[in-house]
Amino acid sequence: MRFAREVAIVGAGTTRFHHKEHREKTSRELFVEASLEAFDSVDKGIERKDIEALFIGNFSSDVFEHQCHMAPLMADWLGLNPIPTTRIENACASGGVALQMGVLAVASGAFDVVMVGGVEKMTNLKTEEVTDTLAMAADNVYEAAVGFTFPGIYAAMATAYFAKYGSEWEDLTAVTIKNHHNGALNPKAHFQSEVYEIASKLGERKGLKFRDEMEFLKSPLNFTVAYPLRLFDCCPISDGASAVILAASEIAEKFTDTPVYFAGLGQASDTMALHDREDLTSIKAAVEAGRKAYDMADLKPKDVDVALVHDCFTIAEIIASEDLGFFKHGEGAKAAVEGRTALDGDKPLNTDGGLKAKGHPVGATGVAMAYELWMQLRGEAGRRQVDDVEVGLLHNVGASGGTVVVQILRR
Amino acid sequence: MEIDKPFTVRAFHDLLNEEKLMGVECRDCGMFYLPPKPVCSSCGSRNLTWRDFAEEGTVEAFTVVHVAPKELMKEAPYVVAIVRLDEGPRISGKLLGVDAPEQVEVGSRVRVEFVKEEDGKYLAFRLQ
Predict the structure, then answer these.
(1) DSSP labels for A253-320?
(2) pLDDT class of A196 with cuts at 50, 70, 90
């Protein structure tokens, strides 16, 4: 893709992602909260009337809240009517695709300034009902109907990956521990505790003492969700919303002297069902979307300083790190175990805690990734700031890889 | 194979009720699709024909589901496998008679089994 004009982020905001904090709120309040923070974050100020269009990523308020037609509802509650507003649904990539559409809308010249939001309110339903709803992102007829759950599908990728490359479940714990460490440094994260802190707290409650994190992660408290994935391999169920404001780069300085530019965009699709993919241990749509983004940005994997990748499950982060070219296929697990993807590693991944610790209100996630890159690229990420960040990448996956969005942002 | 049914989900399940595992073959490029699809994803042809598949294969991935959706909570833990049928396509299904990871591995050989439920027969697998 080549654009007539570049697009930049000039403001970003997010709610905390959490399962209890937003008990009294619905998606409309969550979206407004994130959007108001985004407005306040614009260095030189912005007015509501500057926003010319709204794109909303939302997976399933339809089921979670019995609410469809989310687009005008979000615009209404933020006082943005009568601008054009669109809701995008690509499962867990809804936010990322909403970002794609927002960027394309501005790059096309149709609009100068747009807002992109992502929101999900998941906690009205019981866990088994949420499990059922999330399974709608899979092939209902040929995957969900035969008993596959979301965790089950990624667990199948894990068994295939272990058989092919000789890795083990213990390797996945490196991702869990790292992401909780990063989440502990992020005031917006769902979990803000290291794994060893959680181990002590839970242990105290049950009258148990754990020698270390691994003993806790191997204990029955970390129960199996879908073998080999256990509770701490899975992202939590969270409520939350994130929002970014996009402007054509030629007018961005009206809003800020430090915008963050979209250097590369990629989006691809693949078969719905995991069993129809070419390779069960790699998400081809991620490789393809990554290739398009790198080509457009004229950059290579080694140029990426920070990446936000879709760790709905620990195995997904490992596969992502390979699909995006950070490590060779089959070496992602080893790289995680060696600490290369930690905040102080040579390829920091999921500096905000990832989906695992930061949370995954489904439609919000892609937009939350853009928020974190905005913070990192402007040096505002506080205790989780990586040094010398010039290039960031976000990787947002729908379901088991039917949709993938990869975007590269730079200063 | 001449079967007077459109290439639909409904037809696939009707054939399973008759204990037939059937998909389609593209007459133009030779690709197989199981379950059936109306258009060849490889060459775009609509010149497809029903084909039945041999009922043996190899496990290429599996999981043991413990946290199940509402309607399957009573069956948990249960095993779901992705099986590569000997003639090429992969398909997902429950692996019967197994409920722990030690009992199965990537590479295990399985046979298709048609399971009778109230609303029809379902495709599942059993270890050979």
Answers:
(1) GGT-SS-EEEEEEEEEE--SSGGGSS-TTS-HHHHHHHHHHHHHHT--GGG-SEEE---SBHHHHHHH
(2) very high
